Every structure is written in structure tokens, then in C-alpha cells.
Amino acid sequence: MNSAFQALSMGFRTTVGNVRANKQTFFISVMTIAISIGILGLFLLIFLNLNGFLANWNKHVQMVVYLDNKISVDNKKSLEALFKSNLEIQSIEEVSRDQAWQEFKGQQLDKNGLNIDLGFNPLPASYKIRFKDIDDRSSYINEFAKKVRLKPGVESVEYGEKWIARFESFMVFCRVLLLGVGVLLSLGLILIVSNTIRLSIYSRQDEIELMLLIGATPRFVKIPFLLEGMLQGLSGSLLSLGFMGAIYFYLKSEFHSSIEAIASGIDFQFISQPFLLILVGMSVLIGFVASYISTYQYIQIVNKR
User: Fold this and answer.
1) What 3-state DSSP class applies to 249?
2) How buried is residue 252: exposed, middle or buried, by Cβ count under 10 Å (0-12/13-18/19+)?
């Protein structure tokens, strides 16, 4: 335990020396990591807020069941019985033809200043149905809509299914894009950090070879460079998240009213703590992997001499 602590302590001191000796290279590597993590974080921020928008919108989705003008009393009672038997329905509002027509004319008069009088009522009677907040709400409403459409006297059922399906497909595309961007950036960062550590190794090549000759183990030699790579990852991720946080609070304070107007009732959220930890952890892991690759390759070359 004592020897391990000494090796780690010496590794920290050596790491600080490596950083001081290669300040410019270290800074470039940290900035590259910061930019890359910033790009990934931006995609993640957009995805999380879009996902929150979809979840919030789903909570307010209501089903509108339009009735045939010639629906019989028995068919109407059968339809109402189906609604009442569904325990997941929160509320049912019946809208008569006259009520629907008056609401429509009122809306047109308020919004466009049009006083419509066709001499007849073209709108059907309907039911507006709201559902409780349940798991997989969209799928449940979709399945229930299929049952309602089969009922005699039902002209059509609307709940924005096409829009929801398109938005959900877009969210799947965003997930794939986010994963792809994350993988590409990770591979690029591994190459960049690996080259940075390789430069640091070659700057101390004579010292490393002497250490190996007098009995230092490869693990002992690797520790400073592994710590340097992890430090680059940690510094880059924290710098990136700091900039992202500053930009987020600026945008929220300056454009809060505009965001509320576009997405009423939705609070523009920053990246949640679990995802922040994942970004930082991923950056540190990338630094460790890149450093390990460089030191492993160098030790292999030395052993073949």
C-alpha cells in the first residue's frame, strides 16, 4: 500500500512536470477536448429539451371523436358506454353540432374578424376525451382509437397521430445521430490525446529508458502519462461544461419570453446531473485510453530493442 502511494505521488509530480514542459501541446489538447465535448453537449442539450417537449405535449393530447350526423341513439349509448368503461380516461366532454358551430364562428370573428353565416351547419357533433398521465401514453391512445373507429356512427377520430409519429421518428433519428457524433468525437479525441501523450513520452525518452534499465516496472513508467491523459480529459470537459453553462444562462435570461411563447409551459432545461457526470467520465476515460495506447506502444517498442 505504501509503495503504491509513493508511486502515485511520484506520478503526480512527474505529471505536473510534463504539463509544465509541454504547456502549449497540453493546452491545445485540452481546448480540442473542450470543443468536442461542447459539440456533443450541445446535441445532448437539444435532444433532452426536444424529448421534454414531446413528453409535455403528450400529456396534453386529447382525442376528438367526430360523430356521423345520422348516428342512432343506441349507437351513441354504446359509444358512451365504451368511454365510461375505460378507467384511463380522465374526462369526457360532449360537443353538440350547434355548440361546435358557435365556437368556430367565434374563433373566426376573434382571430380574423370574419362573421361567417353559411345558412347551414357543416360541423358534426363530437366528444373531446382527455386521458390520465400513464406510461406509454401515445401507444395506449393509438390502440384505443382503433377500437373507437370500429364503432358504428363514428365518422372519424383525431388526436394528432401523424404529427406524433413523425416527431417520434425524428427523436429516434436524433438518438442515432447523437450516438454517431459521440462515437466519432471519441475516436478523434483518442487519436489527438494519444499523439499529445506520445510527444510527452518522446520528450522524456532518455529518462524513461534509464528508469527501465535500473529496474523500474512498465506500470511505474506509465502512471505519469496515464494521469496526464486523464487530466487533459477532465480539464477539457470541465472547461466545456463551464462555457455551455454560461451560454445557457445567458440565452435563458435574454430570450426567456421568446422560449415561453414558442413552447408554452415548458422550461428550457440544462443538461441534468447524471448526463453531466457521464460527459465528464467519458472525457476522463478517453484520456486514459489514449494515454494507455501511447504508453503501451512505446513500451512494446522499447522491449523489442
Assistant:
1) helix
2) middle
Backbone angles phi, psi at 84, to 5 degrees: -70, -25
CA distance 107 to 116: 10
How many Å apart are CA 56 and CA 224, to the nearest integer? 49
Can you give the residue range of the structural domain that contains 84?
62-159
Residue pair 197/295 in contact by the 8 Å Cβ criterion = yes
Q: Which grid cell sits at 239?
A: 472547461
40 contacts: CB under 8 Å, gap ≥ 6: 178, 181, 182, 185, 279
Task: Indicate whether 236 and 276 sit together in one domain.
Answer: yes
Q: Which alpha helices (H) appear in 255-304, and where do they start and end?
A: 256-262, 273-304
Q: Which of 2-6, 80-84, 106-110 has the lowest mean pLDDT?
A: 2-6
CA-to-CA dists, residue 159 to 20, 129, 149, angstroms: 63, 10, 12
Helix axes 23-59, 161-203, angle to 10 degrees: 170
With contact defined as beta carbons under 8 Å apart, do 230 and 287 qualify? yes
- Determine contact, residues 66/155, Cβ cutoff 8 Å: yes
Which amino acid is residue 294, in one-letter code?
Answer: S
Write the CA distances from 181 to 44, 185, 189, 249, 254, integer angstroms.
10, 6, 12, 25, 29
Q: Quote the DSSP letter at residue 255.
A: S
Same domain, 217 and 129: no
**Looking at 110, 125, 159, which one is the last position of a domain?**
159
Going by the DSSP 8-state scheme, the letter that residue 120 receives in this structure is S
Write out pLDDT tens, residues 273-296: 888 888 889 889 988 888 888 888
Unique residue bearing C-alpha cell 369526457: 92
pLDDT tens per residue across span 56-104? 766 667 888 888 888 888 888 888 888 888 888 888 888 888 887 787 7
